[in-house]
Amino acid sequence: MVGLRVGVRIARRFLSRYGTVAVSGASMAPTLNDGDWVVVKWKPRRKKLEVGNIVVIEKDDQPGIQYIKRITKIEKKRFWVEGDNTEPSIDSRSWGFLTRKEIIGKYLFRYWKSKKF
């Protein structure tokens, strides 16, 4: 019974810190494609965010809508993000710099590759 309780605690801790996100659209192609599934770390520490990291964003003025983009610039604790495939990407070129609060997750790895591409 003790082993089960420990297992449940570990699972809760993991699920509160990590999650999965489905990639939708072509803005991160060829790195990530429409239909790919990725694992992210929720609420990454600001110190752990660097130029080149792929992050999940939820803009303050668009609650419930998430984007996955790459950090391309950091200035004064604000983040500039862009899609790898810039033509179809809606990103900081439209929004401007993002606050740390708007970065809700950090990409860790892709665990399911879409068969579309």
From TrEMBL:
Gene Ontology molecular function terms on file: serine-type endopeptidase activity; signal peptidase activity
GO CC annotations on file: membrane
Alphabetically ordered keywords of this record: Hydrolase, Protease
Enzyme Commission identifier(s): 3.4.21.89
Catalytic activity: Cleavage of hydrophobic, N-terminal signal or leader sequences from secreted and periplasmic proteins
Any one biological process term the GO annotation gives: signal peptide processing
Location of the Peptidase S26 domain: 19-71, 73-112
SUPFAM superfamilies in the cross-refs: LexA/Signal peptidase (SSF51306)
Family of the protein in this entry: Belongs to the peptidase S26 family.
Name the record gives this protein: signal peptidase I
